[in-house]
Specification:
10 helices; EC 1.1.1.100; 3-oxoacyl-[acyl-carrier-protein] reductase FabG; SDR_fam
């Protein structure tokens, strides 16, 4: 069954949902073969809960929108309260302001989701950064910031998951990069950070498998987001970047979000410890 989208301005979404579900045969019904308000409320409570960290970024917001459209209950997490409020209003979902580099704040967000929504079935950490400098002009501050935004946030997500998923299991999705998988000039800092994320995925997936907590990562190529606009907004660098990808184009946030949603889907619960490329062939194929 596909997502049920509530029309804007609907004063009674439960009535709309009841009407929408009437033709779905496998759902429980009353003695008159009708799905009741109570059944819809029960089904709503049982919908998966996902915490999206970095929800106001290009990939994070696309992921949150996709999950919400599929019926997931979503907690949006970001340090940018203004953008969080706008996205939360758009999706009619709660949010939590947090610095994703701080373990305590990420754990507080996860506990907030657990208290407000009843559980946390998945955590998707979309926080990241982009730095294009050779090592000899990369400052210590540059490197430390890159590690914080990519490695520390990923580690914080794992810690939070181990707390709120220890009894019921769940799924964690982190982000690597094609830069960690192939040699790209001027990517030393981000390649080192994302390489660390890949190591974290393998180790954490092993550690928490016994708790049925799955850990995987997505390794995108260049995706058209606000973070990478400095590259794709300039015709020469955009064309050069497209040429690196065998499919001849850059990725869209929605294409990355699609895999993130797939990885946290309970139907795909036998997948863990994997780094999956969504990169137009960049890391695995040769052009020319």
């Amino acid at each position: 069954m596909g997502p049920v989208n509530l029309p804007k301005g609907n004063s009674n979404p439960i009535n709309f949902a009841v009407a929408s579900f009437q033709n779905v045969r496998f759902l429980p019904r009353n003695a008159n073969n009708v799905i009741t308000h109570e059944k819809v409320l029960m089904m709503t409570h049982d919908m998966p809960v996902s915490m999206v960290i970095g929800a106001t970024g290009g990939i994070g917001s696309a992921t949150a929108r996709l999950l919400a459209s599929r019926g997931c209950r979503v907690l949006l997490v970001s340090h940018n309260e203004e953008k969080l409020q706008k996205l939360a209003e758009e999706l009619d979902t709660p949010y939590f302001v947090a610095d994703a580099t701080q373990f305590e704040q990420v754990e507080a967000a996860a506990k907030h989701a657990q208290e407000k929504l009843g559980s946390v079935d998945s955590i998707i950490n979309c926080v990241g950064s982009l730095i294009l400098k050779p090592a000899h002009i990369t400052t210590q501050k540059d490197l430390e910031q890159t590690i914080a935004l990519n490695v520390t946030t990923a580690f914080a997500a794992i810690r939070a998951a181990s707390s709120v998923m220890r009894d019921s299991g769940g799924s964690v999705v982190l982000f690597s990069s094609a830069a960690a998988r192939i040699g790209l000039a001027n990517h030393e800092a981000i390649a080192a950070a994302k390489g660390a994320v890949e190591g974290l995925v393998k180790s954490a997936a092993t550690t928490y498998a016994g708790k049925n907590i799955r850990v995987n990562a997505i390794a995108p190529g260049l995706v058209e987001t606000p973070l990478t606009e400095v590259i794709w907004s300039r015709p020469r660098s955009a064309e050069a970047s497209k040429a690196l990808h065998p499919l001849g184009r850059l990725g869209k946030p929605e294409e990355i979000a699609s895999l993130a949603a797939w990885l946290v889907d309970p139907h795909n619960s036998w997948i863990t410890g994997q780094i999956i490329g969504v990169d137009g062939g960049l890391a695995g194929l040769k052009t020319g």
